[in-house]
């Protein structure tokens, strides 16, 4: 985030190189964060375009370094699985753990091969990729046959992502009480984002795209508290902003500072 903001101001090739390297490392550690990469890259390009700054050479350099970071692992996957696998191959399994008979918006952990002997037998019989493909087909079939239920589950998962995932034995009141700190932090962060957008603070749109794009996959798979960890630093920034601007008023009400 910090480097993206710096790139809009300076755009040195060294910064573009570091940008590509960091995204390569991110892709290998947590591919779900790549959902933010197109928005981040386009945001930088657009801001530089508004300022009349060139971006083509920097984008090409960052892209080349990103490819150099991830290609060795992609080659390894092709040699191991004898087909193209981008970073990981378990999306079908994760999608099925959130969508299927008995789905309630949480992960159906009891259907994981390490906890379910029948699923473990299927895994051993079909192999890793075959098992993931079959589980993905099951999830897609369920979604096609139950679009209304899938919509309800997705709305529940949105709530769980920002409110915290309740225990199956909890009532709504107990769940809200148990997850009150988690929920409060989400409310403050989203309120800080809203106020920053309304006040027109520079760079806030980049934070907005992050919060819109990164959690999306979990709305359709299943949420977990740790899935919010990668964006916690940005949420904390927004929480602090919400508290500070709440105490000090809007930017337009503050006396002008000398430049």
Description:
With 259 residues, the protein is mainly alpha-helical. It folds into three domains: 1-87, no CATH class; 89-145, no CATH class; 154-252, no CATH class. It has twelve helices and no strands. It has helices at 2-9, 13-29, 37-51, 56-81, 91-98, 117-145, 147-163, 172-178, 180-199, 204-213, 216-220, 232-248. The radius of gyration is 22 Å and the shape is flat.
Per-chain topology:
Elements: H1 2-9, H2 13-29, H3 37-51, H4 56-81, H5 91-98, H6 117-145, H7 147-163, H8 172-178, H9 180-199, H10 204-213, H11 216-220, H12 232-248
In short:
The protein folds into 3 domains: 1-87, no CATH class; 89-145, no CATH class; 154-252, no CATH class. The protein has 12 helices and no strands. The protein has helices at residues 2-9, 13-29, 37-51, 56-81, 91-98, 117-145, 147-163, 172-178, 180-199, 204-213, 216-220, 232-248.
As residue ranges, the low-confidence spans are: 253-259
Our count of domains comes out at 3
Integer average pLDDT: 89
Shape: flat
Q: From N to C, what is the helix and strand string?
A: HHHHHHHHHHHH
How many strands? 0
Helix content: 55-70%
The class by helix and strand makeup works out as: mainly alpha
CA-atom Rg in angstroms: 22 Å
């Amino acid at each position: 985030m910090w480097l993206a903001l710096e790139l809009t101001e300076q755009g040195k090739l060294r910064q573009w190189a570091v940008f590509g390297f960091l995204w390569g490392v991110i892709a290998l550690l947590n591919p779900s964060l790549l959902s933010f990469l197109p928005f981040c890259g386009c945001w930088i390009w657009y801001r530089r375009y508004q300022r009349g700054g060139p971006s083509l050479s920097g984008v090409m350099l960052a892209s080349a370094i990103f490819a150099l970071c991830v290609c060795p692992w992609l080659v390894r996957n092709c040699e191991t699985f004898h087909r193209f696998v981008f970073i990981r191959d378990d999306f079908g399994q994760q999608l099925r753990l959130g969508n299927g008979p008995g789905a309630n918006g949480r992960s159906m952990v009891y259907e994981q091969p390490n906890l379910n002997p029948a699923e473990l037998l299927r895994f051993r019989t079909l192999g890793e990729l075959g098992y993931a493909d079959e589980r993905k087909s099951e999830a897609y079939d369920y979604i096609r046959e139950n679009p209304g239920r899938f919509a309800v589950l997705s709305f529940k998962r949105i709530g769980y992502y920002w409110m915290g995932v309740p225990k199956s034995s909890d009532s709504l009141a107990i769940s809200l009480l148990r997850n009150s700190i988690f929920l409060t932090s989400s409310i403050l962060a989203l309120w800080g984002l809203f106020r920053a957008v309304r006040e027109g603070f520079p760079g806030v749109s980049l934070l907005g795209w992050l919060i819109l794009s990164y959690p999306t996959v979990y709305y359709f798979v299943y949420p977990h508290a740790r899935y919010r960890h990668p964006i916690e630093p940005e949420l904390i920034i927004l929480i602090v902003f919400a508290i500070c601007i709440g105490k000090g008023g809007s930017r337009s009400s503050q006396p002008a500072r000398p430049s």
